[in-house]
Write a structure and sequence with these properties.
single chain, about 240 residues, mainly beta, 21-stranded mixed sheet, two-stranded antiparallel ribbon, disordered N terminus
């Protein structure tokens, strides 16, 4: 029974390989149609390509379905025989979820939702251990919504903030490790992509207060009264920014 299944699987692979026409990228030329969709031709021939193709691009191989030269259907990109990206095209535009694989080709990946060729929704990346690495929301390929970045070991949120039409907006929080036992929390405020509002950095060393910086930004520039407190020296330095 197992032998029969193996033979059947091999036959199906053979049929699939036979159905896909192998062509090298050097044998292809492209142009744009009236909708700015990429149209594929074989060099020296005016007729657009039709059918299922395996396009060789050095170490990469793209498995595509072409209708009148335009991608339409399932799409896969392989490198050295391992799937690195897959998704779906409709009339030359990416639609639905595109999954991009990294490193071992399975667990470390990036999920990108597409609509009419543009990123639309939350893009999620994963570490090689399967834990979430980052998430960022888009609308019409512009950052719009929440962005978060996570710690690989603990899963803690390291960076969190909001975007509006491709620009940072409101409060952003960042947890960082400066090395030497020094960790910190940075709080920043943005307006239309520029630092604008209260700013603070609170650092600790070995779990104890270390350095605290407080100030203000206006339209991307430091302004007003600033201060820096050094817990080890027990003093505070203050100054004014013009």
């Amino acid at each position: 029974m197992k032998k029969l299944i193996a033979l059947l699987f091999g036959f199906l692979l053979g049929v699939t390989a036979y159905a896909q026409k192998l062509i090298d990228w050097q044998e292809i030329e492209t142009s744009k149609d009236s909708y700015q969709h990429t149209v594929y031709y074989q060099k020296g021939k005016k007729k657009p390509l039709n059918g299922n193709y395996r396009i060789q691009k050095g170490a990469d191989e793209e498995i595509v379905s072409l209708k009148k030269g335009v991608m339409d259907g399932k799409y896969r990109r392989l490198r050295d025989g391992v799937v690195r990206e897959e998704g779906n095209y409709i009339d030359g535009l990416r639609n639905g979820l595109f999954v991009e694989y990294y490193q071992d080709g399975t667990t470390h990946r990036k999920d990108t939702p597409m609509k009419d060729g543009k990123i639309d929704g939350t893009v999620v990346t994963y570490f090689s251990n399967g834990k979430k690495e980052s998430e960022k929301t888009y609308r019409n390929s512009l950052e719009h919504g929440t962005e978060r970045r996570y710690s690989q070991s603990s899963g803690e949120i390291l960076i969190e903030g909001q975007w509006t039409d491709g620009k940072k907006e409101g409060m952003w929080k960042e947890i960082f490790d400066a090395g030497g036992g020094v960790t910190g929390v940075k709080m920043q405020h943005y307006q239309e992509g520029e630092l604008d509002g209260p700013y603070s950095v609170e650092m600790s060393k070995g779990g104890k207060p270390y350095i605290t910086i407080r100030g203000q930004f206006a339209k991307g520039r430091k302004t007003g009264k600033w201060s820096q407190y050094d817990a080890e020296l027990g003093n505070t330095r203050e100054w004014n920014e013009k």
